[in-house]
């Protein structure tokens, strides 16, 4: 199955990123700092893939700065004030299908 045009497979790795924000929070370095949770260049992820000609590629991927708090603020507004959800049920179900398909071969 081709996941993206020109890609036959991929692998994204960046193990440190999962704990960066937690580490910052434990030091009371909060999300109001502009560099909260940012990775250093040596901690960026790597994507590897084979193109349609079978050529192997490996590229560094800069970590995108996120804002998980925005999701929870929107969830609060949805539950308490009836606002439209930031993430729809259809989007959630599509994400679940993607994750199930992506991990199906790992079992």
**Low-confidence stretches at least 5 residues in length (pLDDT < 50)?**
1-18
| Tertiary shape | flat
Order of strands across the biggest sheet? 1-2-3
Write down the domain tally: 2
- Classify the helix fraction into a percent range: 25-40%
End-to-end CA span: 17 Å
Please trace the helix and strand order, writing H or E for each element. EHEEHH
- What count of helical segments does DSSP give? 3
Main structural class? alpha+beta
| Rg (C-alpha, Å) | 18 Å
Average of per-residue pLDDT values = 79
Describe the largest sheet.
3 strands, antiparallel
Strand portion, in percent? 5-15%
**How many strand units?**
3
List the helices and strands and how they pair.
Layout: E1 10-13, H1 17-26, E2 45-50, E3 56-61, H2 68-81, H3 89-103
Antiparallel strand pairs: 1-2, 2-3
Would you kindly provide a written description of the structure presented here, covering whatever features stand out?
With 107 residues, this protein is α+β, with helices and mostly antiparallel strands. 36% of the residues lie in helices and 15% in strands. A 3-stranded antiparallel beta sheet has the order 1-2-3, with no helix packed on it. A hairpin with a 5-residue loop joins strand 2 and strand 3 (56-61). Mean pLDDT is 79; it is low at 1-18.
């Amino acid at each position: 199955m081709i996941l993206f045009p020109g890609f036959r497979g991929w692998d994204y790795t960046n193990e440190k990123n999962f704990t960066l924000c937690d580490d910052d929070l434990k030091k009371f370095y909060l999300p109001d700092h502009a560099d909260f949770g940012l990775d250093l260049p040596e901690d960026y992820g790597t994507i590897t893939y084979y193109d349609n000609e079978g050529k192997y590629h490996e590229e560094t991927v800069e970590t995108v700065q996120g804002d998980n708090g925005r999701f929870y603020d929107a969830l609060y507004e949805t539950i308490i004030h009836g606002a439209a959800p930031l993430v729809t049920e259809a989007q959630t179900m599509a994400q679940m299908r993607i994750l199930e398909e992506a991990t199906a071969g790992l079992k």
